[in-house]
Write a structure and sequence with these properties.
alpha+beta; four-stranded antiparallel sheet; globular
Length: 177
């Protein structure tokens, strides 16, 4: 089963900086994310059958302080496989406590026999460029014109989900502020 652990990021498709970004990339074929903004802390390509990972996640996440992350940068990178570019919101500096939490979670999954093939990259996907011929440098130049306000957000909601199933998470945690 393919699953992922996400940290919800409370931003809106209608924020002025996001509208400006879409306008500046108007001629580029982008499939914009309209909701479900999150940071994927762990993407599990395969979890062993019959293993219940939720109790261990409860142990890790219960009493965990909500990370305060300041999002202050728009970026883009080429997705694995090279078929699209990911336009994203990120932070110039990730808090050390958050990075440690992500590593603990990733270690937990792998120690329970899960397969994780991708590394962690702090980003919130805003859109996917559908044309692989689109030049990343051109996209980044347009993005650099957007006035992005630094947004310090306390991220309190964590969901464990089956990949591409947005209806109901397998589990949900509320981190402590």
């Amino acid at each position: 089963m393919t699953t992922y652990l996400e940290l919800i990021v409370p931003i809106s498709f209608n924020e002025s900086w996001f509208r400006d970004l879409r306008e500046r990339l108007d001629g580029v074929n982008v499939r914009w994310q309209r909701n479900f903004y999150h940071i994927t802390m762990v993407f599990v390509n395969h979890a062993p059958d019959g293993v219940n990972l939720v109790p261990g996640l409860n142990d890790i996440l219960s009493g965990t302080m909500a990370p305060a992350i300041t999002f202050d940068k728009l970026d883009a990178f080429t997705a694995s496989g090279g078929h699209s570019h990911i336009i994203n919101l990120t932070a110039t500096e990730a808090p050390e406590e958050f990075q440690s939490l992500v590593q603990d979670l990733r270690d937990y999954f792998t120690s329970n026999g899960c397969t994780i093939q991708s590394g962690f990259r702090l980003h919130v996907t805003l859109g996917r460029v559908q044309d692989p011929r689109a030049r990343l440098r051109t996209i980044k130049e347009a993005m650099s014109q957007v006035q992005l306000p630094a947004m310090a957000l306390d991220l309190t909601d964590v969901n464990y989900r089956i990949f591409k199933n947005y209806d109901k998470p397998l589990a949900h945690w509320q981190l402590t502020k």
